[in-house]
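Let us begin with a simple case.
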Amino acid sequence: MRAKGTEALLRAGLFHSLHPLKDGVIELRKKGNWKPYHTIWSMLFLGWFVSYIDRTATGPLITYMIEHEVAFFAGVDNPHAIGGLVGSLFFAGFMLMQFPGGALGDRFGYRTIIVLSIFWAGIATILTGIAGGLITFIILRVLLGLGEGVFYSNDRSYISFHSPPDKVGLGMGIALTGVSVGLTVATLGVPLLLSWAEPRFGEHAWRVPFFVLGAITLFSAVLITIHLKPKQLPAGLDPQSPAAKAEYRKALPPLFGYSAVFLAVVMGIYLLAARFGVSDVGIAVLLTALCPVLIVFVYRRRKEEIGPLLKNRNLLLMYLFFIPVMWHLWFYGFWAVSIVRDFGGNALVTAALIASFNGLAGIIGFPLGGMISDRAASRPNGRRNVLAVQTGIVAVLTFVFAGYVMAGYSNPVVLSLLLFVSGLFFFALQPVAHALASDHAPEKQRGSMFGMLNLIAEVGAILSPVVSGAIRDASGNWGVPLLLDGALLAAAFLCALAVTSTSRKAAPSIA
């Protein structure tokens, strides 16, 4: 093979070395098909998958419970608001564990917290299936959020340590694809499980998906425990590094301690607010107030580290940008089946099939967005411009979707196509946004920056399900919530435009 064009093959990771022969001919010696870090990527893909089937299942299940007036949704005047509040309470717990999760990983090992998070999620999901009342149901959903909240920072850190430097981005993208697969499987699979269970279990059919998904999560946790441990440590890595050690027994007490405190805080706010007649939306607003309280607390304890992350204008814009992103993700993730069901008049399984096209798009969107981000990195304002265009397209498509269904149209092919194309751009913009935020963060504080970003972004996730559900109850359809979603994405577009990006030097050529 001639030298020209070999650089691309090396960068793709398909070959490991060049060997000159004669007359300018170069032999490429092929790599093995499977490397140890591929196993790590696969296990973390599985972790994201089961995390998302457990949390996404709540939306379709609550839609079913509202329609059939079963369990604690029987005869309720504002069922969508209450159902949305359940999702908001989950995300309150999830939000509060962002910083503690990273700190625990640094102390006891990233793999430790990842494994405990998945086991925790499986147990909480199974226990939800035996809940006897709304309060118990809510407590178990908050516990699920607390357990899953520690996964993100440790997953990102573990990939960084155990992947080749030129493949860290690829590994993160592949692992994160589990989000889209989990969204799709839960959106479509839960209604199918309900259709199977209803003739057999009657009004208790809603419990079956929790048992099935929880069992899948526990089985996955066993696989992750076995295969996530690297067969050999990278050269020079200290065995006491958080990327290497796994101290499960030492990690459990502080993990339980943080969770007990935050569970008491979240449930205390909920119960006190409900006692004094605060609306469901009001409760969600009170929960979002925990975000600035936690930021002030962390800032006072770690001022030198956190200060630069809060005083950087571009990072502040990225934090604000992600609030609408999380709003959109969990507006569709929680209520997509109900939206399609309301406007299209389809059966639950048919509505779920149409809604699943949005999550399915992420299987292409996540890696595609990463590739686009890398190509744009060397151009002045490259990532910023790509991000703004992608966000603008998603906002426009959201308004188009809203206008289409509000006009009375409900062709399933058109609905599926709009959801898929919108999802493609939406999931593709996220790796670009993460890379852009990383560009503006101090190198030694990127982990803290992502913790801060995810903490603030969860404000959108907390408010989206309950506010959208309350508007749906008040207006009688999903039209106004869709328009609100589009308006928030338009605001995110303006935030992206306001970021001042810088060009990055192109990667050096391989000699």
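The second case is a distinct protein. As before, the sequence precedes its structure tokens.
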Amino acid sequence: MTRLYHDALYDRDAAVGSYWEASARPLGRATPPLTEDAACDIAVIGAGFTGLTVALTLAEEEGADVAVLEAGTPGWGASGRNGGFCCLGGAKLDYAAMAKRYGLEETRRFFQIQVEAVDLVRSFCKARGIDADLTGEGEILLAHKPGRLAELRAEQAQFRDLFGLDCPLLEPAALAERGLAAADFHGGLLVPPGVGLHPLKYLRGLARAAIDAGVRVYGNSAVLALQRQGGGFSLTTPQGRMTARKVIIATNGYSEEARLPDLAGRLLPVISDIIVTRPLSHNEQAAQGWTDTTMCADSRHLLHYFRLLPDGRFLFGGRGGVSGSPAAGERGRRRLRRDFEHHFPAWRDVETEFSWRGLVCLSKPLVPFVGALEEKGLYAALAYHGNGVSFTAYAGRALAALVAGRQGAADLPAVLRAPLPRFPLPFLRRLYLAGAYGLYGIRDALG
């Protein structure tokens, strides 16, 4: 199996149709396809947040000769089409379960790097002069059913007791006072670290920095085959071939397993849909009572995530689809629009101007992976569980230090360095997902 979903999700020639593409200035740097035989010290597969961060770090801090091979254009995948939530995350495993599996100290190490990762993004944008539309402070988790308030209180206690993080619990009146009034939310938990951003502006800032530092970035250069050659690797693209001593895989949910057999059966890509409205006037925002740009997500297992953008548009995203076909995509958009109108009834007549979808990436243990794969000289960083905007800032730098030999695997939190296991009967992954979604939908409806 090379692709888990319909080919439409992997069509690099098709326009994404995102608001980010429509509003980000062009990259302004050439990323031609690889059309010859070439060589480098380190080849990176994928020009997203992870790939460009690791390439930039290796070039600037180690003086390495780095080439990045991208199947589309930089940021074509998840890095250029996510919701722009730069916040805590990276794992889906509950922290209590994480502490039981990896130990409390290692869990605290993992949590601390999430906090640091948000600061890494902020400081990078400031230092490089990247205007990525940073807005809001923190993320609010909203209870979509009264019964979910108890879960938010338990999460509040967990943040306090395990990590010393104070997360205020907000009643509906307090949410409305902040300018976050919507229908059928029964309170929220404010998790302080985090900021909203324009992901493609940030991505293109990374790409410019990497190219200016000497990294060769080849667009429209999908890796068709990765093979061991002598003491290194050979990477075959449609028009050329790259040889490298070491290879880093940074393809996340867009990893094609027939071409990258070291990842076969180890990842579960999941579809995420987003709609963005036309700009809302101040009067329209006031009519709904939603005027704040803080990032929000609800307590559903099949979560919704949403935020007011700096230009007054409203972004609303969610999970739930198990087919990548265009017809399924249209059904997903209708479902998302229906849910949007339920929570924001004052905006029922506000037009949707942009809609798109993409793939986030899960692992069987529900935690990210950063480190060496079984094949000597082959590395990867991936599986961010829908929260890679900030986490990749840490993962890319950590992987660069590992590849360069400046740190060993033991320097990473144990949460990240455990080997990536395969899913049982991996050809059934979509069926597993459909079954889980059915169960989650029932639980979300019952509260």
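The chain has a mean pLDDT of 96. The CA atoms of residues 153 and 169 lie 7 Å apart.
Keep these points in mind for the review questions at the end of the chapter.
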